[in-house]
Design a protein that fits this description.
Bound molecules: zinc ion
Low-confidence stretches: 273-291
Order of helices and strands: HHHHHHHHHHHHH
Distance between the termini: 107 Å
Number of strands: 0
Structural class: mainly alpha
Largest sheet: none
Length: about 290
């Protein structure tokens, strides 16, 4: 028996229900992604958005074309995964636990994303992640610009912990749906290349839990740090936060975004903070020979 006949037998009426659900899931998913992305593009094209560019550089057309194609592919893969979940119902579901599901799913995703992302930056696995890093300067469409293999890995990183969790706690569809919606919106938010948060954001304890767009923009420009998704904790604990992060955020939030990918305001600040070290004088001028 062919695999497709086993999964979706033609004579079974449920096949047609599944096909209809897949179509609806695909349509809703792509529309919500495109609406969110174009809202972010609109904000970045306003006077406010142009003033608060984090990297004051434009995106090459080739990057935007690739990202648009990947958005359609990535959104379709996600819709297929949602439809498969509906068909096979692998989770222990319950109507309650909406906020518990949302919170635990969010925390688990932060941990798995950091782990997967950091592994994908190793020499052996980077080929899977390279597609996402075509964007040195991010655009709202970078949020869904992944290779098919990376999109599947990310989906597995999202679903497997939830599958394990459902052995201990019934999972709420609504809680999971909320997490996916928030994940999409924040994914586009961190790829805006516009610092929409105020300059005091990082100093305010509760707001500080959520990464402003500068955090992930620096990851795309520099590669070597900021592997976390929406919260700063793992980068901070594991020493992968850039030392000049607060400085770059403050500059972008005050309309003085960086002019090049290699800009390091921390180094400039260090140079400015100290007086130039005087040259060591030659020995004979220091020690006067006793006569
Ligand atoms: Zn990366
Ligand atoms: Zn990214």
């Amino acid at each position: 028996m062919r695999l497709i006949d086993f999964i979706l037998p033609v004579e079974n009426p449920e096949t047609y229900t599944f096909a209809a659900f897949l179509g609806v899931s695909l349509g809703i998913n792509l529309v919500r992604i495109l609406v969110l992305q174009w809202t972010a593009f609109f904000i970045s094209a306003t006077h406010f958005g142009l003033k608060r560019r984090i990297y004051r550089l434009t995106n090459p057309l080739s990057q935007l074309k690739q990202e648009f194609a990947s958005t359609i592919t990535g959104g379709s893969i996600d819709a297929l995964v949602f439809a498969a979940f509906w068909k096979f119902k692998p989770l222990v579901m319950a109507g309650d636990n909406v906020w518990q599901t949302f919170f635990l799913s969010f925390v688990l995703m932060e941990i798995t994303f950091y782990t997967i992302h950091r592994a994908l930056h190793t020499r052996k696995l980077y080929f899977i992640h390279r597609h996402h890093h075509v964007a040195r300067v991010v655009s709202p469409m970078s949020a869904f610009s992944f290779s098919v293999s990376e999109r599947l890995v990310i989906n597995a990183g999202f679903m497997i912990p939830i599958l394990l969790l459902s052995n201990y706690m019934p999972i709420s569809y609504l809680g999971l749906g909320l997490h996916v919606a928030v994940n999409y919106a924040l994914g586009i938010f961190i790829h805006m290349n516009v610092e929409v948060t105020p300059s005091w954001w990082l100093k305010f304890p509760v707001l500080n839990f959520l990464n402003p767009p500068t955090h992930h923009s620096m990851h795309h420009a520099r590669y070597t740090g900021h592997f976390g998704l929406f919260t700063p904790f793992l980068d901070r604990i594991l020493g992968t936060e850039f030392h000049d992060y607060a400085k770059v955020h403050g500059l972008a939030a005050s309309g003085q975004g960086l002019e090049s990918l290699g800009s390091r305001p921390e180094r400039q600040e260090r140079r400015e903070d100290f007086e130039p070290v005087p040259k060591v004088q030659p020995m004979e001028t220091i020690y006067v020979r006793a006569s």
